[in-house]
Amino acid sequence: MHAFSEAFRAELDALLRARRDVRRFRRDPVPEPLLLHLLEQANLAPSVGLSQPWRFIRVQSPKLRAAVATAFEAANAAAASGYEGARAETYKRLKLEGLGQAPEHLLICCETAPAQGHGLGRQTQPQTLRDSVVCAIQILWLAARAEGLGIGWVSILDPQGLREAFDLPPTWEWVAYLCVGWPEAFLDIPELEAEGWEQRRPLADVLERR
Ligand SMILES: Cc1cc2nc3c(=O)[nH]c(=O)nc-3n(C[C@H](O)[C@H](O)[C@H](O)COP(=O)(O)O)c2cc1C
Fold first, then answer.
1. Which of 22, 52, 124, 144 is the most exposed place for a label (fewest CB within 10 A)?
2. Separation of 170 CA from ligand 1 center, angstroms?
3. CB count, 10 Å around CB of 77?
4. What average pLDDT does range 85-94 have in this prediction?
5. Where exactly are the transmembrane stretches of this chain (predicted)?
6. What is the pLDDT of residues 165-197, one digit of tens each?
7. 30 in helix, strand or coil?
8. What is the CATH number of the domain that holds 94?
């Protein structure tokens, strides 16, 4: 059998539509086997040259979590000051992280000089290593949603300032800081839409023929 069943495909479509970026978490823990299962699934992602350049760090140290929260506050204040008028007011209302409540924090890095893959596929486009890491993150995001778990990507941070605290090897690039946990709720539409910040555009707006 080459295709999955119609029922599965309908469920998959529902999953894709129901995935959300989550910023409001309950504090109850994520069972260890479940988290490891999700990371196993992310480890199945496609990668350039089969290099598997993703590196997952489970951030458990209160000191590191506090450093990330401080970095968010600084970057968010700087970002807020770049808006004016009604847009600035809306920005201030947005909740853009769930760092304080999410029971699990993941830092996801990219090994930019992996021996694995023997350089295949990335000679002219070295960024395909990072692209591969994002493929893994997307799988994690969807797999988590299938379990009823929420993920929130926190990009409002200056990773340069945090590299030292995390003692990252020089060849590891910071790609994503993710909050993971049980959501207070899954919204039907992106929170940024609900808050009037931005709207999802239909396919016709982003599809061209040349
Ligand atoms: C690379 C990336 C970075 C993001 N960074 C943030 C962030 O720092 N804070 C936040 O609240 N949401 C962040 N998001 C979530 C987006 O705002 C969200 O995906 C978008 O509004 C669509 O909503 P949905 O994911 O719920 O469909 C990020 C998403 C991506 C893909």
1. 124
2. 27
3. 10
4. 96
5. none
6. 999 999 999 999 999 999 999 999 999 999 999
7. coil
8. 3.40.109.10
| Interstrand relation of 54-58 and 172-181 (parallel, antiparallel or unpaired) | unpaired
Q: Of 82, 36, 32, whose CA–CA distance to 56 is shortest?
A: 36
Residue 1, pLDDT > 90, answer: no
CA angle (140, 142, 143) in 5-degree steps: 65
* Nearest one of 185, 14, 203, 25 to 102, comparing CA atoms: 25
* Residue 99 domain boundaries: 18-190
Distance (Å, whole) CA 37 – CA 83: 41
Structural domains counted in the chain: 1
What residue owns the CA closest to ligand 1's atom 23? 190
Of how many residues is the chain composed?
A: 210
Residue 13 lies in a domain: no
Mutate to test the pocket of ligand 1, among 21, 73, 140 (most ligand atoms within 8 A of CB): 21
Residues at CB less than 6 angstroms from ligand 1: 20-21, 23, 96-97, 153-156, 190, 192
Q: Whose CA is nearest to atom 29 of ligand 1?
A: 153
3-state DSSP assignment of residue 21:
strand
Per residue in 28-72, pLDDT (tens digit) is 999 999 999 999 999 999 999 999 999 999 999 999 999 999 999
Q: From the DSSP assignment, how many helices (H) and strands (E) are in the chain? A: 7, 4
CA of 2 to the centre of ligand 1 (A): 33
Strand segments, DSSP code E, in 65-149 are 104-111
